[in-house]
Structure formats: C-alpha cells, structure tokens
C-alpha cells in the first residue's frame, strides 16, 4: 500500500483493531484502485504573461457537443507552481482541437 500516508494507515489500523475489518478493507481497496495522479501543472509568470504547461491526454475524447476533441484539460481547479503577489496561482483550463466546419 505505497499510496497510503501515515494518517490513513493509522485509521486503517484502528479500524482493524476495533474489529471493523470490512471497513478497513474497503478503504484499502479504494486506495489500491484509485487512478495515479496526473502530472503536476506547471505555471510561471514571464514578461507580464502567465505560461502554463500540463500534459496532453493519453486518450483524447470528443467534447459533449462533438464539435471538438479535448486534447488536454485540468480536470477541475488546480493549484499551480506559480505565485502572484505571494499567493498561489490556481487555474482551470480545457484545450481542444476544433473539428473543421462542414462545407455545404
């Protein structure tokens, strides 16, 4: 269980000591099947502009409308490595390839 930090491990151990093995096993199963975290978002401020880098999706999916393909997304709000006036920069973003418009 390399994904378990000491606090979570302590909770699991306490559950087992209390005879709540099923609950402990359920926590372990959730941790073991959880997806690996995505690569950290990187951002910096240069020449008055924010520059953001995050990985492309391994398996790009069509947008809900079907008019584009999502090739990278933050998948929610994320704290970046950048700071502005001493505060962490947080972002959310979707990068997509727009499908050509049908000629007609």
Q: Could you give a quick summary of the protein structure above?
A:
This protein is an alpha+beta fold.
List descriptors.
single chain, 104 residues, alpha+beta, three-stranded antiparallel beta sheet, two-stranded antiparallel sheet, 7 strands, 24% helix, 34% strand
Describe the structure.
With 104 residues, the chain is of the alpha+beta class. It has 2 domains: 1-34; 42-98, no CATH class. The chain has 2 helices and 7 strands; from the N terminus they run ααβββββββ. The strands form 3 sheets. The chain has a 3-stranded antiparallel sheet with strand order 3-4-7, with no helix packed on it. A two-stranded antiparallel sheet has the order 1-2. The protein has a two-stranded antiparallel sheet with strand order 5-6. α1 packs antiparallel against α2. The longest helix has 13 residues, at 21-33. It is flat, with a radius of gyration of 21 Å. The mean pLDDT is 80.
Sheet having the most strands: 3 strands, antiparallel
Strand residue content: 25-35%
Mean pLDDT over all positions: 80
Tell the overall outline. flat
- Side by side, the strands of the main sheet go 3-4-7
What is the strand and helix layout of this fold?
Blueprint: H1 6-17, H2 21-33, E1 42-46, E2 49-53, E3 61-62, E4 68-73, E5 78-84, E6 87-91, E7 94-98
Antiparallel strand pairs: 1-2, 3-4, 4-7, 5-6
């Amino acid at each position: 269980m390399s994904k378990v930090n000491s606090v979570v491990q302590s909770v699991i151990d306490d559950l087992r000591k209390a005879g709540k093995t099923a609950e402990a096993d359920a926590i372990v199963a959730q941790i073991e099947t959880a997806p690996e975290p995505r690569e950290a978002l990187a951002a910096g401020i240069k020449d008055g502009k924010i520059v953001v880098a995050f990985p492309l999706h391994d398996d790009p999916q069509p947008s809900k409308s079907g008019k584009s393909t999502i090739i990278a997304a933050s998948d929610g709000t994320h704290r970046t490595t950048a700071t502005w006036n001493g505060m962490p920069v947080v972002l959310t973003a979707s990068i997509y390839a727009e499908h050509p418009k049908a000629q007609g």
